[in-house]
Design brief:
alpha/beta, Cobalt-precorrin-4 Transmethylase, domain 1
């Protein structure tokens, strides 16, 4: 049975996931304020950041620091509090907790122990950026890029084959490191770089990827970037004809895959990738 106990204000006992403003402190719902006021504890990443929001709305609920470096250590204590029928709210510094922020460890433990988890809708840098992008609204959210160059290459190569808009979070310290990889894997696409969303100095920078340049000065504030969907050349045939396949089979032992790919592509409107993959299949069958 799911825990359905209520407190005196009619709130279910359990863990509340409350999105907080991503910039402008006015972007918070009445319901979120009410639950924060009536919580027994609020879990937050950085108490100094959260206190600015809570002070604005005169919320005096007790804070528990809960970030990626101590969330495992905190787990037993928080679960005990929840099992004692406390109402606990979890917030991040900005946006929804658990989305590229701490939260998943506690959420999964609550699921195991059949503790109520109540998510609230609210501010999101992801949907805000996609809504203003003008790109395809079928999108994939990735989050932050990996740290290691090898992993960045691996992930972007994989993502570049997908025909969706792609959303990433980037710290201002890493944007110049990431730009060359974006130019390598997402040529002929468009990019939107959102800076300081909903704040006074918010900025939305739009480029064709090939014209994207390194920032001369490190931009301020976390960045949300959206890369447009993959543009498919409708003049290209995506499949090889039976005649092409027969010709490739004749050449496969005489020429390199690169030579065959260039030769077939020269006289046909077929993507090089399609030709290359067919050649590779033939090689692997031997």
């Amino acid at each position: 049975m799911v825990n359905q106990k209520l407190n005196n204000d009619g709130l279910k006992k359990g863990l509340y996931l409350i999105p907080t403003p991503i910039g402008n402190l006015g972007d918070i719902t009445f319901r979120a304020i009410n639950i924060l006021e009536n919580s027994d504890y609020i879990l937050c990443e950085d108490t100094r950041v959260s206190k600015k929001l809570l002070d604005k709305y005169k919320i005096n609920t007790k804070l528990i620091s809960n970030h990626k470096f101590n969330e495992v250590k905190n787990l037993k204590k928080i679960i005990n509090l929840l099992n004692q029928d406390n109402i606990i709210s979890m917030i991040s510094d900005a946006g929804a907790p658990g989305i590229s922020d701490p939260g998943a460890i506690l959420i999964n433990e609550c699921l195991k122990q059949n503790i109520d988890i109540i998510p609230l809708p609210g501010p999101s840098a992801v949907t805000t950026a996609v809504s203003v992008s003008g790109f395809d609204d079928k999108y994939l959210f990735y989050g932050f890029f990996p740290d290691k160059e090898k992993l960045i290459r691996k992930e972007l190569k994989r993502l570049s084959d997908l025909n969706f808009s792609l959303v990433f979070f980037v710290s201002p310290k890493k944007i110049n490191k990431i730009i060359p990889f974006i130019k390598e894997y997402f040529i002929k696409r468009k990019i939107l770089i959102c800076r300081e969303i909903s704040k006074y100095y918010e900025e939305y920078l739009r480029y064709d990827v090939e014209k994207l340049q390194i920032f001369n000065n490190e931009p301020k504030g976390e960045l949300t970037i959206v890369i447009s969907e993959k543009k498919i050349d409708k003049n290209f045939s995506q499949t090889l004809s039976e005649s092409d396949k027969r010709n490739i089979k004749k050449m496969i032992n005489k020429l390199t895959i690169k030579e065959i790919t260039n030769l077939i592509n020269q006289n046909n409107k077929i993507s090089k990738k399609e030709i290359y993959n067919f050649c590779l299949k033939l090689k692997n069958e031997k």
